[in-house]
């Protein structure tokens, strides 16, 4: 058997609980957390502020539990997707020679059936909470949520996984950008017509895409050997590196343009300089860019995934506050 367990000492093997925590891939969770933060920040801005508050907020969705429900759904889908990927890649043998964090199936830490049940259990939890949110807001949330669950499973699962064909980044942008951000905003306001939220959703989607791109750049060699044709494998290390730089740079450029335009516009309700806040996360992006453009070995890129997660979390937190301030 290949993988981390056979090469490690007994002391290095995670315990019964920790192995499932590691299998959930905590470093990827900012992709689920950030859109909820940004959508909630915008929702609180229009709920508590002065901009069209009367017709944006419905009495059925007053309360903090909608934001909490959206967070549970997002995290459960992300964890379920990670377990599903672990299961599907493990049974295909894709993870046998990984350089990244431990994988449950490939390393022998859990049986495939156990990991599959963990994935389905996480998806089930997301579905139950999502139905509660749909009952409180609109049943249109149900097909959107079902699409999220299917996208999570078929990323590496099923007979023709789209992650193996190079479409992972596109789906991550859609579901962890506009769908998750605007969906979070909607369940708290029952409204879709706030342009600032859509712009914020694009920024969030680009950062989530950069997180997946960092993962796939690290795994180019092993993915190519196993027949997993990710976008990074298809376009190559150099072009993939520049695409990563574009994905983490574009949100900063967007925030700068937004700030410049807002400061030059006539005074309006809200704080016009709010978009200066996300720019404070820029120092976290610089070392990531240097590493991706300067290193070619997969192991040298190991810190990039964690660093990108920290960057996304910092930028998203500041963007959430900025949108709340902007829409107040």
Largest sheet: none
Q: Number of helical runs?
A: 15
- Tell me the domain tally: 1
Beta-strand segment tally: 0
Please state the structural category. mainly alpha
- Classify the helix fraction into a percent range: 55-70%
The N- and C-terminal alpha carbons lie at a distance of 57 Å
Could you name the ranges where pLDDT drops below 50 across 5 or more consecutive residues? 1-11
- Assembly of the depicted chains: single chain
Structural shape: globular
Q: How are helices and strands ordered from N to C?
A: HHHHHHHHHHHHHHH
Question: What does this molecule look like?
Answer:
With 328 residues, the protein is mainly alpha-helical. It has one domain (19-84, 124-327). The chain is 70% helix and 0% strand. The chain contains 15 helices and no strands. α5 (65-92) packs parallel to α8 (141-154) and α5 (65-92) packs antiparallel against α9 (168-189). The longest helix is centred in the first third of the chain and has 28 residues, at 65-92. The relative contact order is 0.15. The model is unreliable at 1-11 (pLDDT under 50).
Question: What's the topology here?
Answer:
Blueprint: H1 4-7, H2 18-23, H3 30-48, H4 53-56, H5 65-92, H6 104-107, H7 112-136, H8 141-154, H9 168-189, H10 195-218, H11 220-226, H12 231-235, H13 237-264, H14 282-294, H15 302-327
